[in-house]
Amino acid sequence: MKTVRIALAAAALLLGAHGAQAETLKVGVSAGPYAEVIEFAGKIYKEKEGIDVKVIEFSDYTLPNAALAQGDIDLNNFQHKPYLDNQVKNRGFDLVAVEKSIIVPLGLYSKKIATLSQVKDGSLVAIPNDPSNGSRALLLLQQAGLIKVDPAKGIAASVADIVDNPRKLKFREIDAAQLPRSLEDTDFSAVTLNYAVSGGLDPKKALLLEDINTPWNLWFVTQGARKADSKILKFIAIYRSPEVKAFIAKRFDGTIIPTW
């Protein structure tokens, strides 16, 4: 079991250097808790199938789909379906969602207030600048009762689709990886759990977290031509096993939610 962490500038070089390896399954993830779950499942997979699992961890979550499309990895597990759909539409990737994995809740975090009741008029809020996670953040803010978005937009809502903003919140859209740092300059921010954890934030202290009813669960994704690949399907089946579910419950204490 090996995790390779790849920074943005060196991604293509390092992936090319590893090359294709027989009897190795390469799984791409973004920074955060994903790798730890994949590694645990990978140990079981190795015992049962005799195939090593190598986790490739990317520092920028625009990279795992490009690496998958190029064949540098076998599958990835870091994205929800709206993000994948957006990538396929805008970048022309032949990628398909194979099976659900976990819910990694987006949350509202602050270093200035402890509860949503303390939100002041004119507060500055940071949200992810990619369309799918930006919409996700707006819907969580709507769940919190802070704004209302155009219901016709659904999971494609943007800041321009806010139809009611009684607190006159101000929005700053920034790269998702920078959201934990934004808390020094904002009143609160919407941060995905992977970046919250890597940024030293405690999900248990979030102002609000998505729950099991969120549509933003993660998916295992692979190339269209490999959606029935037995090597991939067997790994996913092991990942979605009672053993891995128990590991997630014990290791992450409810902050990550299995979908099975």
From TrEMBL:
Entry keyword annotation includes Signal: yes
Location of this chain's protein in the cell: Membrane
GO cellular component: membrane
Topological category with respect to the lipid bilayer: Lipid-anchor
Signal peptide per UniProt: 1-22
Keywords: Lipoprotein, Membrane, Palmitate, Signal
Family: Belongs to the NlpA lipoprotein family.
Protein name: Methionine ABC transporter substrate-binding protein
